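[INFO] parsing input record for Thioredoxin domain-containing protein 9
[DEBUG] input buffer:
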Amino acid sequence: MEANASVDMFSKVLENQLLQTTKLVEEHLDSEIQKLDQMDEDELERLKEKRLEALRKAQQQKQEWLSKGHGEYREIPSERDFFQEVKESKKVVCHFYRDSTFRCKILDRHLVILSKKHLETKFLKLNVEKAPFLCERLRIKVIPTLALVKDGKTQDYVVGFTDLGNTDDFTTETLEWRLGCSDILNYR
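[DEBUG] output buffer:
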C-alpha cells in the first residue's frame, strides 16, 4: 500500500517536471516564431544574403578539397609523398597495408565509400613494403593500420579490427563512427 503511494507521488512529480519543461520549450518556440513574424523585408533580405554567402563559402571549400585530392581513395607511391599529402590537408586517414593481407582488402572497401562521403578528409593508402622508415617512425607493427593525421600530426591509430568489433564483418558505419571519435571526420 505504501509502495503504491510513493509510486503515485513519484509519477506526479515526474509529470509536473515534464509539463514545466514542455511549457518552457513551447514558450521559446513561440518567441522565435514571433521574432520571425516581426521581421521586415530588409531583415529577411539580410538573412537571405547571409545564408547565400555561407553556401558560397561551403561550395568554395568543397572545390578546394577536391583540388587537393579529397573525395577519392588513392594509393601514394612513397614515404616522401606521404609527407607532402599530409602537409596540404588538415585531416588525413592513411591506410598502411600489404597486398597479401586479406583484411586490408576488407578495409579498402569501406574506405572507398567513406572517401566519397566525407570530403573534409583525405583518404590515402601506402604499401608498408615501400615505406619501412615511416612504419618504423610511426611504430606500425600490425597490418592493417589506419594512421589518423590532423594538422600534420598523427592523432590516433586504428590498429587491426579491434576497435571495429573484432570481426571481419564490421559495417562502414562502425568504421565511420570510430573515425568520428578521433574527430578525423565529421560524424553525425
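[INFO] The two ends are 48 Å apart (CA to CA).
[INFO] shutting down worker
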